Amino acid sequence: MGLDLEYIYGQTPISEEEKDGILIKTISTRKELDEFEQHNIESAFEWTISKKFSLDRILTIEFIMEVHKRMFNKTWEWAGKFRNTNKNIGIDKLQISTSLITLLDDCRYWIDNETYSHDEIAIRFKFRLVKIHPFPNGNGRHSRLCADILISNVFNEDVFTWGGLDLVKPGESRKKYIDNIHNAEQMEMKSLIAFARS
Known about the structure:
This protein is mainly alpha-helical.
């Protein structure tokens, strides 16, 4: 019995090779996978709120990978590892590390020079991270958690609510979230910031 997944609006398909990396071989449907991943993510969230992370730690490739690993390490053997295939979204797989270094440097510059508001810095960081799409899957959830870590640890402000609803399931909230990501591609961040705080 293999992993038979249906994809919804905005989801990145998982390759057959990546599907082989499922740790719980009895999982066979999207619903089962979503439930199992959610438990994994909740334990990662508990880890993030139980600690205080410095800016120097957050703005490293190692930390970006560690967050993803903690979110998916009970689900996928490739948790915390950069993708080795190109996807329908994201940069070329060979440019992931270089693009992340640029993003981390840019984020430090925004913070040091107060280039944007605190919310906008965290949302720009999330947006650029999801556009790089470093991992085979889970990039949206990962980038949202990284934005929450940044806003709460660096700026001592409340984490984002992200519309207050489940953005993994199909529906109006997910569509609105994806549409706001597309707006941000035109460098119009206000609607994505407003959604994150709604």
